Amino acid sequence: xxxKSIVVVACGDASDVEAIDAAGTLAxxxxxxxxxxxxxxxxxxxxxxxxxxxxxxxxAGERILASERVAQERLESLVRDAAARHxxxxxxxKRSLMPAVALAPAATLADLVIFAGAAAxxxxxxxxxxxxxxxxxxxxxxxxxxxxxGPVAIAWDGSTQAARAIRAAMPLLQAAKGVLLLRNVDDxxxxxxxxxxxxxxxxxxxxxxxxxxxxDVRGARVAESLLSAARADNCEVLVAGAYGRPRLFEVVLGGxxxxxxxxxxxxxxxxAH
Length: 273
Prior knowledge:
Helix content is 51%, strand content 18%. The chain has helices at 15-30, 43-54, 57-86, 99-108, 117-121, 125-133, 160-168, 170-175, 187-192, 196-206, 222-232, 247-253, 256-262; strands spanning 5-10, 33-38, 90-92, 112-116, 139-142, 152-155, 179-184, 212-217, 237-241, 268-272. A ten-stranded mixed sheet has the order 3-2-1-4-5-10-9-6-7-8, sandwiched between helices.
């Protein structure tokens, strides 16, 4: 289990700085390479808007192309600065008309795909969900918490999604100063799954993860309970399975994944489906 290939999804706004810097920090620690995939708004939609407003297809096209060049140049400048600051290798793709098509093959072979937390909540939300659900790539939401090798929390519910997230996060867990294994319990689950956390602690120890502490958390709002516990121990990352229930159910009624994605502030969230 390694962390050698990192992909950053850039949306063309201020949140790119956070995501690119997170990638640079992790790449330096694990000697990884970083690829940046632009996912700017669709220029075809802009063309329709400007063309109708200006009554000039040529003029609208020139404006769109100029805007695209500015966005690409800004992104490449951010990447150059990050590469120099962290001393790691970055590569930047040119923007594709269909970012999802460009991202899929890169994400398939990536050890980690990074989205800025704000981007995943807003314009890039569908692309974030597609990366998790279809590509099945592990996704890290950078939310401003540092990546300095501090404590990492795990939301453990015994699911295959959580297990995949833990395997993807193994390099971070092995390098962490401590690991907090969290289990959200109620009166029914507490007795039925009493051995689950101990089995996971044994698995983590087998892989060289040190200082694993178990903690039960309670509360009807699972995401809030997990985040509160992680923040109380100053955890930099919360590792969790994503979309354990059907996606439509999560969208309509909410759900833990949605609450974790939309939560403001740290810790950073590492998800896998």
